[in-house]
Amino acid sequence: MKLVALIISLVSAGSVLQEKLVGGNTGFNCNPSLYIYNVTKFVTSPWPPVKNEWVSLGMNGTMTQNVSLKGLGIYVQLNGANLYQETIPEDGNYNAGQYYALNFKAYFPSIIPNGKYQVDTKLINTAGNPLNCWAVTFTMA
């Protein structure tokens, strides 16, 4: 259904930063066995997200192995059921120990259903494997 495509529009702008940003994290590691990209900071603003507004998300961390990126996977669940997924192209080669930051935006239109959302974000390498899993959960009312 085309309505699902309207639920979340994502725009990415990846960049490598030289220093860590200061502030608190939102979310949690949703799969500790995925540690090739070690997330040290994840910020969502505004927090919690609200309908009819763009939300900025920033993920910062360090590569623990040499990797070649293919994309950022976004997986959205509503009340525990898979709702939407998208892969945003990202590329570049990164060395073990290299700091990497990714900033993107999501829009939650007023027509999205109320309920409990979980949004998982996973960097994907060129072999199609996830390097990490970071999730935020929130309720839309």
UniProtKB/TrEMBL annotation:
The keyword Signal applies. The lineage of its organism: Eukaryota, Sar, Alveolata, Ciliophora, Postciliodesmatophora. Coiled coil: none annotated. It holds the Pfam family E1_DerP2_DerF2. Residues 29-139 form the MD-2-related lipid-recognition domain. This is MD-2-related lipid-recognition domain-containing protein. Keywords: Signal. Transmembrane segments: none annotated. Residues 1-18 form the signal peptide.
